């Protein structure tokens, strides 16, 4: 039952094959059985059961709120949740309980969805592995699946693999069958990266299509709420629920609401698929390259026009992203001073001392490093040299995408990550910034341009770990993007982790 898609689970609830309470308890039980993954920071068992009881009463009356009524979901722990701790995986906010819900969370609750917990992440979403949070690293469920554990030379106890980040807990929650959907945040690939490494569908919508109200900010000009599901159709369903103008977020944009299903048999013969030559990056694994070629060949055989395109300023994107990210981080983190909320140091000989020690104790090395870098980039003598120049480069990156799409290209096909998931012992050999430079190389240009993108799992690597490919579309073409993604999904037959009891998960064909 837990391996169903949202649409299938919703139908089962309406047909009485299972009740919302039973489904909720199955998810909660599954969370307990997979505690070794460390996917959750807070499990909201009491609230979840109460919400499931309300959903059950509505279904018995024949008046469900919507297709999500009774469906368990999880939320990354940087989205505010009323009367439920929101920590951002940081000591700074370890006891913070917001008095309101983020808009996207409230929209799911308004549809009758059942919140089962808040998921683990990199501290304040600064990372690409979900290894740097105050509550410990998240483990990838596929590291406990038979294809990887039975690979030659793998020690199942010590060679566990990372989820990617920073929304690793959300990706692990969906992949381990503890929730049917999860919210993540995507600033430079933080939803698509773990989605690819955990074998989940990960959608980064057009900037402004989903409200950021209640999402504790990392980089305001890049942050987008992301959606993680088990199928492309489910991602489209959730997108329809979440999108729309929010008076509490001035950056939101209007969109015509539609709950129409994606086309089941899309004709791709009229599509032009672009392959950016700059995305043949150093370090791209042979397995990933093979899948990239395979899917491009699938499009060609179906009659689509596949052509190489150029995004010349991509090579500068990751450096530009680093400058802009650190600058906005320095501004956003200034609010955490230990005075009004958040961690307060006991060292309070003066206001300045208390302020400094509170931030030193509350933030980890990664956050402190980005704050220091951002303040340097914003100094009077550095502003033109770094921050202003980065903004100009960002405009050039945006123009690259615009020119490609105006030339007749409908969608871009790229890898999501360089390789499959790395063992934790290897991943932590390098510092956070170096890892982010490597892991976000394909994903962060999309955030710079504000475009929609989705990562779709396509196959298992030779090590038995998921590989995902990314599709990118023009702004506000999110549904068209998902239609193409579903076309791929229907043809690649990616295996999914079956709902089983053992620690070594069996696999079945989706």
UniProtKB/TrEMBL annotation:
Please provide, in alphabetical order, the Gene Ontology terms of the cellular component aspect for this entry.
glutamyl-tRNA(Gln) amidotransferase complex; mitochondrion
For the Amidase domain, which residue ranges apply? Answer: 22-482
What quaternary arrangement does the UniProt entry report?
Subunit of the heterotrimeric GatCAB amidotransferase (AdT) complex, composed of A (QRSL1), B (GATB) and C (GATC) subunits.
UniProt subcellular location: Mitochondrion
The enzyme's first-digit EC class, named in words, is ligase
Catalytic residues identified in the record: 76, 166, 190
Write out the function statement from the record.
Allows the formation of correctly charged Gln-tRNA(Gln) through the transamidation of misacylated Glu-tRNA(Gln) in the mitochondria. The reaction takes place in the presence of glutamine and ATP through an activated gamma-phospho-Glu-tRNA(Gln).
Q: Which InterPro entries match?
A: Amidase, Amidase_dom, AS_sf, GatA
Q: Which GO terms describe its molecular function?
A: ATP binding; glutaminyl-tRNA synthase (glutamine-hydrolyzing) activity
Sorted keywords for this record are: ATP-binding, Ligase, Mitochondrion, Nucleotide-binding, Protein biosynthesis
Catalytic reactions of this protein: L-glutamyl-tRNA(Gln) + L-glutamine + ATP + H2O = L-glutaminyl-tRNA(Gln) + L-glutamate + ADP + phosphate + H(+)
Coarse class of the protein's main subcellular location? mitochondrion
E.C. number(s) listed in UniProt? 6.3.5.7
- A Gene Ontology BP annotation from the UniProt entry: mitochondrial translation
- UniProt keyword Repressor present: no
The record's similarity note reads:
Belongs to the amidase family. GatA subfamily.
Instruction: Spell out the protein name for this chain.
Output: Glutamyl-tRNA(Gln) amidotransferase subunit A, mitochondrial
């Amino acid at each position: 039952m837990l391996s169903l898609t949202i649409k299938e689970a919703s139908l089962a609830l309406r047909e009485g094959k299972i009740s919302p309470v039973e489904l909720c308890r199955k998810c909660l039980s599954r969370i307990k059985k997979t505690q070794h993954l460390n996917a959750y920071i807070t499990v909201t068992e009491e609230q979840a059961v109460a919400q499931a009881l309300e959903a059950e009463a509505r279904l018995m009356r024949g008046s469900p709120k919507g297709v999500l009524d009774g469906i368990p979901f999880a939320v990354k722990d940087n989205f505010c949740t009323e009367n439920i701790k929101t920590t951002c995986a940081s000591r700074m906010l370890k006891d913070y309980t917001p008095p309101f819900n983020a808009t996207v969370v409230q929209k799911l609750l308004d549809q009758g969805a059942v919140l089962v917990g808040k998921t683990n992440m990199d501290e304040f979403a600064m990372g690409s592995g979900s290894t740097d949070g105050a509550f410990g690293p998240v483990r990838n469920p596929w590291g406990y699946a038979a294809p990887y554990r039975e690979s030659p030379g793998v020690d199942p106890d010590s060679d566990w693999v990372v989820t990617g980040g920073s929304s690793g807990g959300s990706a692990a929650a969906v992949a381990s069958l503890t929730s049917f959907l999860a919210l993540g945040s995507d600033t430079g690939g933080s939803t698509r990266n773990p989605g690819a490494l955990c074998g989940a569908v990960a959608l980064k919508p057009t900037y402004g299509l989903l409200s950021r109200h209640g999402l504790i900010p990392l980089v305001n000009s890049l942050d987008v709420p992301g959606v993680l599901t088990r199928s492309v159709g489910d991602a489209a369903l959730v997108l329809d629920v979440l999108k729309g103008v929010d008076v509490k977020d001035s950056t939101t944009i209007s969109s015509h609401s539609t709950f129409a299903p994606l086309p089941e048999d899309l004709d791709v013969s009229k599509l032009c698929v672009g392959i950016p030559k700059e995305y043949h990056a150093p370090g791209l694994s042979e397995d990933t390259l093979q899948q990239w070629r395979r899917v491009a060949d699938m499009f060609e055989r179906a009659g689509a026009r596949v052509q190489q395109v150029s995004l010349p300023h991509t090579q500068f994107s990751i450096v530009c992203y680093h400058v802009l990210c650190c600058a906005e981080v320095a501004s956003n983190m200034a609010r955490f001073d230990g005075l009004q909320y958040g961690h307060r140091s006991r060292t309070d000989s003066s206001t300045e001392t208390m302020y400094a020690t509170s931030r030193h104790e509350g933030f980890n090395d990664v956050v402190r490093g980005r704050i220091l870098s951002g303040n340097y980039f914003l100094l009077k003598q550095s502003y033109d040299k770094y921050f202003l120049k980065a903004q100009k480069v960002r405009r050039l990156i945006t123009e690259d995408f615009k020119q490609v799409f105006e030339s007749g290209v409908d969608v871009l096909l790229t890898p999501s990550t360089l390789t499959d998931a790395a063992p934790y012992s290897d991943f932590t050999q390098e510092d956070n910034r170096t890892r982010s430079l490597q892991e976000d190389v394909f994903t962060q240009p999309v955030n710079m341009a504000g475009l929609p993108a989705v990562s779709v799992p396509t196959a298992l690597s030779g090590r038995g770990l998921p590989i995902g490919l990314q599709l990118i579309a023009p702004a506000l073409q999110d549904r068209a993007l998902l239609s193409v993604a579903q076309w791929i999904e229907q043809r690649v037959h990616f295996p999914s982790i079956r709902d089983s009891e053992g620690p070594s998960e069996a696999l079945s064909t989706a």
